[in-house]
Write a structure and sequence with these properties.
Elements lengths: L3 H14 L2 H21 L5 H25 L2 H15 L8 H15 L7 H12 L5 H14 L1
Length: 149
């Protein structure tokens, strides 16, 4: 888990080392965190910082797609490098098998049996997997588990 202070310390180190792309990427993240703090009117907690990092990862994925459409290999390489840098700050992603097991546990906890109870399952499950897997995948797994039963 990364904190804002950790990012600021790493920024100083990268400024000394001369790694310009890493420096610029960290500055971009810190700027996004600062913007979120202003919007939130206060400091962000760990979950909010992880959310900001995920948004930045999504932006880099979109940049890669746009660069592919434009045929700009240089921009693709830059975005890929930034993506790898950003991913080092995110928590280890969960596999679909791990999410399936967590979903089954939540379904048993709640006693959910029908797809109509999907909202209740998601409400309990999402905080447990937040930031570690895409919500769409979680939704599909829960939907398939509830429709099987």
């Amino acid at each position: 888990m990364v904190l804002k202070e950790d990012l600021q310390t790493e920024l100083k180190q990268t400024m000394r080392s001369g790694d310009h792309l890493r420096r610029d990427t960290i500055r971009m993240v810190l700027a996004a965190i600062k913007l979120a703090e202003v919007e939130n009117r206060g400091p962000l907690d760990q979950a909010a910082i992880t959310s900001v990092l995920q948004k930045e990862v999504k932006v880099q994925h979109e940049a890669i797609e746009d660069a592919k459409k434009a045929g700009r290999q240089d921009l693709i390489e830059t975005a890929n490098t930034r993506l790898k840098i950003l991913e080092t700050y995110l928590p280890e992603p969960l596999s679909e098998e791990e999410v399936t097991q967590l979903a089954q546990n939540v379904i048993e906890e709640i006693g959910a049996q029908t797809p109509k109870e999907m909202g209740q399952v998601m409400k309990v499950l999402m905080p447990r997997v937040q930031g570690r897997i895409d919500g769409k995948i979680v939704n599909q797994i829960v939907r398939s588990l509830l429709s099987e039963e």
